[in-house]
């Protein structure tokens, strides 16, 4: 091994003393660099099945089943392996804008040709998550918990409730590292077999620090799309690994590809552009409607159904496997909500309580 200096007195790697010294050195290095020990030495990343949010008319499930609007979400036990949490009881969000284009800045065209900057989109997304905590929309999730009998549809008498704290946005990172070209061109096959987004989520957890109740949301810039690619607007999933001490290391992440794309079969508006606001304003309402709709969808599902190991999901799902966002995807009452001084397009979320009392489970506040 040329170029690598060998110690004059080689260490005995089998020695308990040597292993202890190495662990102390690693922990000291982590402390110096600000990297949590649980992140510094993580085993092979196990990628999991993805829960996709399809553009209208796309995908295999086409927004769940025909009966998704006529049944409650059911608690599935929260027991999908070591480290499972069932729900995020203290939701938090980290935004990762991945790719050198975000760092240098770029422009994107509205349907009328008017150009908007990537900085406008970044501000739109950052403002949304900075203010969504404590809102009536996010409060819909607080009826769900993680300590009750499997098969239950209500948390009456349960514990471990989802909360709705303010300031859920914990950090924003523009990662200027290059994004693999094949994320979209190889499409679902690439992301199901060897997900580079999962690896980026792990890097983000090293950058920010690890939070078991957080969703790491990764957004990528415009890129080449594959011919015949079924149009998914995003997905959420979870990594599964062990840290250097043998402890379960799992984190929730979401992937938001570039949404304002001329997607085959659905065009530029297929993932929500102008879904609520026909005209755009300087803040980004209209042109970036899809971003708050799609990221809001993935955020809400990660909070209520975070564990996703292989095809096993253990949170709040209906009998067909639809989550609280799926059941109300692209619903007619998708609308603007006001957070702080701005409006954002969001879809309704499923509420068992509302469905049980009124017969309409898709609501925008609680």
How would you sum up this structure, described in words?
With 366 residues, the protein is α+β, with helices and mostly antiparallel strands. It has one domain (47-61, 72-363). 25% of the residues lie in helices and 21% in strands. It has 10 helices and 18 strands. The strands form 7 sheets. A 6-stranded mixed β-sheet has the order 1-10-11-9-3-8, sandwiched between helices. Strands 2-14 form a two-stranded antiparallel sheet. A two-stranded antiparallel sheet has the order 4-5. β10 and β11 (248-256) form a beta hairpin. The longest helix has 18 residues, at 16-33. It is globular.
Key features of this structure:
alpha+beta, 10 helices, 25% helix, globular
Short description:
The protein has 366 residues and is an alpha+beta fold. 25% of the residues lie in helices and 21% in strands. Strands 1-10-11-9-3-8 form a 6-stranded mixed beta sheet, with helices on both faces. Strands 2-14 form a two-stranded antiparallel sheet.
Outline the secondary-structure elements.
Blueprint: H1 16-33, H2 37-40, E1 51-54, E2 74-75, E3 92-98, H3 100-104, E4 107-109, E5 115-117, H4 118-131, H5 136-139, E6 145-147, E7 159-161, E8 169-175, H6 182-185, H7 187-193, H8 196-208, E9 214-219, E10 232-242, E11 248-256, H9 289-304, E12 308-309, E13 312-313, E14 316-317, E15 335-339, E16 342-346, E17 349-350, H10 352-358, E18 362-363
Parallel strand pairs: 3-8, 3-9, 9-11
Antiparallel strand pairs: 1-10, 2-14, 4-5, 6-7, 10-11, 12-13, 15-16, 17-18
């Amino acid at each position: 091994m040329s170029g690598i200096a060998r110690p004059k007195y080689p260490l005995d790697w089998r020695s308990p003393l040597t292993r202890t010294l190495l662990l102390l050195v690693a922990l000291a290095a982590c402390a110096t660099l600000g990297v949590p020990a649980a992140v510094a030495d993580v085993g092979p990343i196990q990628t999991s099945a993805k829960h996709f949010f399809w553009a209208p008319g796309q995908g295999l499930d086409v927004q769940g089943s025909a009966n998704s609007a006529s049944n409650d979400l059911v608690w599935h036990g929260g027991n999908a392996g070591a480290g499972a949490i069932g729900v995020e009881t203290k939701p938090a969000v980290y935004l990762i804008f991945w790719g050198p284009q975000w760092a240098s800045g770029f422009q994107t065209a509205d349907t009328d040709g008017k150009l908007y900057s990537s900085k406008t989109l970044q501000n739109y997304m950052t403002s949304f998550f900075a203010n969504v905590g404590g809102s009536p929309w996010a409060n819909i999730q607080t009826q769900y918990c993680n300590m009750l009998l499997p098969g239950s549809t209500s948390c009456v008498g349960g514990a471990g409730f989802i909360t709705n704290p303010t300031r859920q946005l914990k950090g924003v990172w523009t990662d200027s590292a290059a994004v693999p070209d094949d994320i979209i061109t190889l499409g679902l096959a690439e992301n199901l077999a060897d997900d580079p987004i999962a690896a980026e989520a792990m890097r983000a957890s090293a950058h920010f620090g690890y939070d078991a109740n957080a969703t790491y949301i990764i957004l990528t810039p415009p890129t080449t799309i594959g011919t015949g690619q079924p149009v998914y607007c995003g997905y959420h999933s979870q990594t599964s690994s062990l840290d250097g001490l043998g402890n379960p290391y799992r984190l929730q992440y979401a992937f938001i590809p570039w949404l304002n794309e001329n997607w085959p079969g659905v065009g530029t508006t297929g993932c929500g552009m102008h879904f609520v606001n026909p005209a755009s304003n300087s803040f980004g309402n209209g042109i970036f409607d899809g971003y708050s709709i799609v990221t809001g969808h993935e955020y809400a599902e990660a909070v209520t159904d975070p564990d996703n190991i292989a095809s096993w999901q253990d949170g709040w799902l209906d009998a067909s496997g639809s989550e609280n966002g799926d059941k109300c995807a692209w619903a007619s009452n998708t609308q603007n909500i006001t957070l702080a001084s701005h409006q954002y397009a969001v879809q309704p979320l499923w509420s068992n309580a509302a469905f049980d009392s009124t017969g309409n489970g898709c609501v925008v506040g609680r």
